[in-house]
Design goal:
Blueprint: H1 10-14, H2 18-21, H3 29-44, H4 50-67, H5 71-78, E1 83-85, E2 88-90, H6 92-121, H7 123-142, H8 151-162, H9 169-177, H10 185-200, H11 203-212, E3 213-216, E4 221-224, H12 227-248
Antiparallel strand pairs: 1-2, 3-4
Helix pairs in contact: 4-7, 4-10, 4-11, 4-12, 5-6, 6-7, 6-8, 7-8, 7-9, 7-12, 11-12
Organism: Halorubrum yunnanense
Protein name: MFS transporter
Keywords: Membrane, Transmembrane, Transmembrane helix
Length: about 260
């Protein structure tokens, strides 16, 4: 007959064995802090050559983020422009869908020529052109005259022009990865996009406040909205980014 064996370890007897209750290997808090430290270290160690590109890119993306969501409103409400060609008649909402398709088509068609151009003239001019399109588009769009025979053709031309901003994406990525040390391209890219996107987050809120206006409860302070001001300010911020990159951005020979 097997007798009852009493536990000889007091921790086992109490049922409070720390190793049983808490496995240090399963603790993710320390790993999370370590991950945060690694991200901060990566941000601090970004190659100096990337800083002008990062500043210019962030300003351009911030500008675009301020008004991007309002593009559809400008077409469907501010301009109220549709398309009438013979028997074909498109509402402003349907026409906006066509405009986006035109933009994407131009983007796809322009990427191969842009890549070949980057081989001849360098990456920086191609990237700068994409930044310029980003920056100029809002002011150009809000300046289109409404209710004229040229309204629809001008809008089509502008969205085709907007598609060129995507043509420089391959060159842009090459400029990001190029200065990175061997086998660190992924970490450098991740840190770059993390910082840029974090700064751009509030851009839509700022653009919305300027576009639609706002009031401060309890103070009687009220600011009327202005689509023209929102789009104009967005382009101004974007052009500052373009100028900064043009002046201080460095070339990287990706085809050496």
């Amino acid at each position: 007959m097997v007798g009852w064996e009493y536990p000889t370890n007091p921790r086992e007897a109490s049922g409070l064995d720390p190793e049983a209750v808490h496995d240090a290997e399963e603790d993710t808090l320390g790993k999370e802090f370590e991950g945060v430290r690694e991200v901060v270290a990566d941000l601090r160690s970004l190659p100096p050559e990337l800083r002008p590109l990062l500043v210019g890119d962030t300003l351009v993306r911030f500008a675009n983020g301020m008004v991007y969501v309002f593009f559809v409103i400008v077409i469907t409400q501010f301009l109220e422009v549709g398309l009438d060609v013979g028997p074909l008649s498109l509402s402003p909402a349907a026409f906006f869908g066509v405009l986006l398709a035109i933009e994407m088509l131009v983007a796809l068609v322009s990427m191969p020529p842009a890549a070949r151009a980057a081989e001849r003239v360098g990456l920086k001019p191609v990237v700068a052109l994409g930044f310029l399109v980003y920056a100029a588009f809002p002011a150009l769009l809000i300046s289109v005259p409404a209710d004229t025979p040229l309204t629809a053709p001008l809008v089509v031309a502008l969205f085709a022009f907007s598609g060129l901003r995507f043509a420089g994406l391959p060159a842009h990525k090459a400029l990001i990865v190029g200065p990175a040390e061997r086998d660190t391209g992924g970490r450098v890219s991740g840190s770059y996009y993390l910082l840029r996107n974090a700064i751009v987050v509030p851009s839509a809120a700022l653009g919305g406040l300027i576009y639609g206006g706002f009031s401060v409860p309890g103070t009687g302070l009220s600011v009327s909205g202005s689509p023209t001001l929102a789009f104009g300010l967005a382009s101004a911020i974007g052009l500052v980014g373009v100028a900064y990159f043009a002046l201080f951005g460095e070339e990287y020979d990706a085809y050496a």
